[in-house]
From TrEMBL:
It holds the Pfam family Neprosin. Residues 124-133 have a biased composition (Basic and acidic residues). It comes from the Eukaryota. This is Neprosin. The lineage of its organism: Eukaryota, Viridiplantae, Streptophyta, Embryophyta, Tracheophyta. Residues 1-188 form the Neprosin PEP catalytic domain. Residues 110-133 are annotated as: Disordered. It comes from Arabidopsis suecica (Swedish thale-cress).
Length: 188
């Protein structure tokens, strides 16, 4: 997310947001709710610049079956995953015992000047991109069933939505879940 009013700068930041009981919610730790447990990996922070094709962010969101709390973890390719923190189950009125819909996506908001920011890595995906890492992508979306076992989501149950194809693109990939992005600009 790029949000100067929240973060104080124009960099890309990772973030967490919850919306719970009575429609209340909050970003990161701005209001009481999220319990940060890792001193090294934070729920929110600026994302480092990385060479094209070298950035990979893996996250895991799951409900602890003993406490009912909703944990977020940083998935590491090498070494142990890092538990970042959790949202207590009491914050939520409709997901106290699991969920039946999962949403993944990106949102951009036009500035007062009319400029829309880049989305993803600012590369609009093309059909030729389906097998490479030119665009931002979401892949390997797994869900945890009622037995707490990981399963791949079924493609037939996925919905894809792009509400502005003038400045941004969205393509269903082969082994990827989807590719997305675009440079933004005027009149998006």
């Amino acid at each position: 997310m790029i949000n100067p009013s929240l973060f104080g700068d124009g960099r890309v930041w990772g973030y967490g947001y919850f919306k719970g009981a009575n429609g209340t919610g909050c970003y990161n730790t701005v209001c009481p709710g999220f319990v940060q447990v890792s001193k090294r990996d934070l729920i929110s922070g600026p994302l480092p610049e990385a060479p094209e094709g070298k950035r990979n962010i893996g996250s895991n969101f799951q409900q602890d079956k003993k406490t009912g709390n909703w944990w977020v973890s940083d998935i590491k390719n090498v070494g142990k995953d890092i538990h970042i923190g959790y949202w207590p189950k009491e914050l939520f009125d409709v997901i106290s015992d699991g969920v039946n819909i999962v949403g993944v996506g990106g949102v951009v908001k036009t500035s007062p000047s009319g400029q829309s920011p880049p989305m993803g890595n600012a590369h609009r995906p093309t059909e030729e991109d389906k097998d490479d890492m030119a665009s931002a992508r979401v892949r390997d979306l797994l869900v945890i069933d009622s037995s707490y076992k990981f399963k791949r989501s079924k493609r037939s149950k996925l919905e894809y939505l792009l509400d502005n194809d003038k400045c941004y693109g969205l393509i269903k990939g082969k082994e990827h879940l989807f590719l997305f992005g675009g440079k933004g600009g005027d009149s998006c």
